[in-house]
User: What shape does this take?
Amino acid sequence: MKVGFIGLGNMGSGMAANLLKAGHEVTVYNRTPAKMQPLIDQGAHAADKIADACRGDVVITMLADDAAVEGTVFGDSGIFNSLGSNAIHVSCSTISVALSDRLTAAHAEAGQRFVSAPVFGRPEAAAAGKLAVAVAGPPQAVKTCEPLFQAIGQGTFHFGEKPSLANLVKLSGNFLISVVIESLAEAMALVAKGGLDQHQYLDFLTSTLFNAPVYKTYGGIIADKKFRPAGFAVPLGLKDNRLVLSAGEALRVPLPLASLIRDRFLALLARGDESVDWSAIAELAAADAGQSVQSKEAAAPGSVASTRR
Amino acid sequence: MKVGFIGLGNMGSGMAANLLKAGHEVTVYNRTPAKMQPLIDQGAHAADKIADACRGDVVITMLADDAAVEGTVFGDSGIFNSLGSNAIHVSCSTISVALSDRLTAAHAEAGQRFVSAPVFGRPEAAAAGKLAVAVAGPPQAVKTCEPLFQAIGQGTFHFGEKPSLANLVKLSGNFLISVVIESLAEAMALVAKGGLDQHQYLDFLTSTLFNAPVYKTYGGIIADKKFRPAGFAVPLGLKDNRLVLSAGEALRVPLPLASLIRDRFLALLARGDESVDWSAIAELAAADAGQSVQSKEAAAPGSVASTRR
Amino acid sequence: MKVGFIGLGNMGSGMAANLLKAGHEVTVYNRTPAKMQPLIDQGAHAADKIADACRGDVVITMLADDAAVEGTVFGDSGIFNSLGSNAIHVSCSTISVALSDRLTAAHAEAGQRFVSAPVFGRPEAAAAGKLAVAVAGPPQAVKTCEPLFQAIGQGTFHFGEKPSLANLVKLSGNFLISVVIESLAEAMALVAKGGLDQHQYLDFLTSTLFNAPVYKTYGGIIADKKFRPAGFAVPLGLKDNRLVLSAGEALRVPLPLASLIRDRFLALLARGDESVDWSAIAELAAADAGQSVQSKEAAAPGSVASTRR
Amino acid sequence: MKVGFIGLGNMGSGMAANLLKAGHEVTVYNRTPAKMQPLIDQGAHAADKIADACRGDVVITMLADDAAVEGTVFGDSGIFNSLGSNAIHVSCSTISVALSDRLTAAHAEAGQRFVSAPVFGRPEAAAAGKLAVAVAGPPQAVKTCEPLFQAIGQGTFHFGEKPSLANLVKLSGNFLISVVIESLAEAMALVAKGGLDQHQYLDFLTSTLFNAPVYKTYGGIIADKKFRPAGFAVPLGLKDNRLVLSAGEALRVPLPLASLIRDRFLALLARGDESVDWSAIAELAAADAGQSVQSKEAAAPGSVASTRR
Assistant: This one.
């Protein structure tokens, strides 16, 4: 398929590479052009401007936040003005429910189609084509994009015709992850102060009721105090937290756990270090327990990545 | 091994039966004698009084709470006064860290040994010999009891020589489960109000990052609104919550998530129905979202059990 | 002084009337023209459009929210384009810190001056000229406006040269009020369930440590269950809560009490009734205590007003 | 009147002195006898043992906590065994609702009478005879004690015949104070980080809506960072918080604000300093805002006391 791909960050680079591997004809665009080179080396076409990435059947965006997506879509020579009739914009970014609804309406009015397909997984999963893809949008458009989802993920999950429902799944999923982090932080502060070894405790948990990847990954980070370099930096955590709280506000659904975690993120940011992993809220739980925590610097990036699997 | 077993409730009956199956010579005691008959039918000896269950190498207690254990141990003809020198008291009940420490000291002073071995799992797991057993105590005593743990569980996890550390593991584990319930309750209220099907949402979660038994079990109960009959009634949930908060207080460790969930349990109990499952705090999250929830009565007990697996 | 006054709601009408009484030449503007008539009857000039209210030394805005102020200031024939050089825009509305900063910069660039002067008090206080005025802005401009503040308030409090600091005072003040409401709600639910009369309890509190107007006003509303008609409707409460949380987020200051109260407002709104007073979060505290609350309809508006003093 | 007075701490010493000044015949008892001397110098009789303080019409207890009261009442030669028929035990201590109920039943059974009369005020108020007294108990007994309440307080407030209701008033009152502290802590952290002077801010608050003693006292302590020496040490704050949470638990009333503040007290205690004032939770709010707080040592005790009025 002829596909445009906009946004070559940690996640997007891996996703675009997997589309190429799957045999699609991919035109890439990135605001910082240097990041395009590795993909060009793998066979991608380079787009000089956004419009050049909008000449195929589908254009995929994988961008940092609402503002980046809005700029890319509604800018003068943006997707909205460049995409052909009946062509599909697939948004994989973690954006707000409100923007997703706005994109749905705008593309429909322009005779274009909009599919929301946010993804779950860290950069390593993106590189390995092992993301989980939550999809919602017009059935025909979703069906057309299926081979693309198969290229980037190991599973596609459908949530109906209203694109923003996939965003709600993504945001609530990240909310659930943040709660796992906070709960592990509190439990591990408790048992550590009681005299238990955190790794031993974690082995027990993840061998029994909590044998899910999310407990293993974040429990390991907390026990190892490996909050740097960040796999998912705390400003991103706060952003997603803000989006789920906004979705809750719009729907009139209180989320007391999200409120509690919001305050943790702010306290973490108040220290002045924005480069730490969002799981470093565990340092706050430890500090509240009177235990000073010294975040370890990773000896080598490679070892960190493997620790996080 | 010659073993006494005190406390034949939903959990204890299954555990004692598995000890018999494994070939141990078991003398059972229960305050309400009628509950002893099924075990006697399976080959157990009946104890007329607590002391009669204390004549072997080991006596196991599986009782409801601190008060029940205190009464059984420190009563006039209780375990403390009946157990032989060097014999072992294994406490499988979910009791406080403080009582565990008190039992440790008392038994040591009397020349007896104390092992703490709280278990994880619902009654079905107890019946199937598939509990997870968290053990701490004097190494020789723990080693002696190993065959008993193998008979009742599918895995034994060791937490050192201080018995109360196993209780801390148990209490913090139940705390983590309660957080899973509350987080699912909030997330599922959000997506449901947004228009998603809760089962579809849950299938996604438990196929990806959250594929752990605890998410499947409680997500299913919430989606099905099967809060009755209770697998673990809300007063028990509140009791365990109180114990983990007490442990945190003694150790000077704040547990804000436990505090939040405590208030949920109280609000649930304030309705006047103590027979509901602790996961019915999901009804509060739904009510706060303006969604009235009608708890379903189970059509048949059998179908409920299977739902909960 | 020659003054324009924009925004004749419950608060603005009283404020404009007091400016007239103090002898100022007031030109009023309101989007819904009918509300101008009572002021015209009291001697005000009528403005056909915003620009007509901007021909004096000072223009005051008293509008519902950020959006209303933005529209009034930055619209095509808005204040920004109409106000003379060196003339003063006084914003009395409860707006965000961010908008206040933006107005400061915009007016400065246009050679105009901006003073922030949010007010504390309910509509009756506005009518009686008994508001408390929190002021910040360029000293000369503030001095020029002093007679206006004296006309609308019984006290002017200065917070320096940076206008948005007055907004921070206003927002944090409303936050403190919301906490008083929630704390009274919880305490009064507790003592009522224990068997005490809420009025008797309140009399004690407000005769001793808590003899402040805010405890008397809101304690009385809660004890009387007079949540309708609203003196300050819950959507306004949620808006101000959102603004203080935003200010906290921008400054990296967690406000856990504000987070908790946010969830109360959302749960209240989830019921579907937006016309209730923000103090009706007391109904949620009562409901969580298992006490059904029946909000009383006021027999006559007059009696309600007096209750609230 | 012939009165026994047991418990001559910071509060009790002042109260007993005021009873003497009012002309009552007072026999004092204190576990540490040295503290009796100043009262003896003022005309009190000394009791060698508790029983000696129980020979009059009334015995008053002003002790630290439940355990101290239980020991004093139910010990072998305690109040219960020493007090004459129809004589009155007045408990001024801040004790649990449960213990108050237990004392009510025990004294009634023994033909004695029990009045609960917890007091509000700091040690200076006790010395000045300006406490607020919350009273509940059998009407005749309360009437008999009226002159005593007038001697120690500036106002007596009646809460009916059930003694424990006065304890509920006391505990909920302390809860309300703790919320004032936390709310000021958060608001003052916010405005300080925004650039405002905390004293200026506080002057505004306490000149307008919040002109109550509790805001002045604690706002001043926070702005001055005078958390040492403690007027009311954090372990006492935690104790009272525990008692109000217990009362809430027994009555099935969630108190989310009390839960939040509990976690603050624990985090404060986790630092290892138990001698700080309970209002030092403001240091936690400041720390969460990224502002390091240096608690000032008082230059002279006298100046601290005056700061706190």
Q: What stands out?
A: The interface with chain B takes residues 238, 242, 248-249, 252-256, 259-260, 262-264, 266-267, 269-270 of chain D (CB under 8 Å). Chain D has two domains: 2-161, 168-308. Chain D has 14 helices and nine strands. The CA atoms of residues 5 and 16 of chain D lie 7 Å apart.
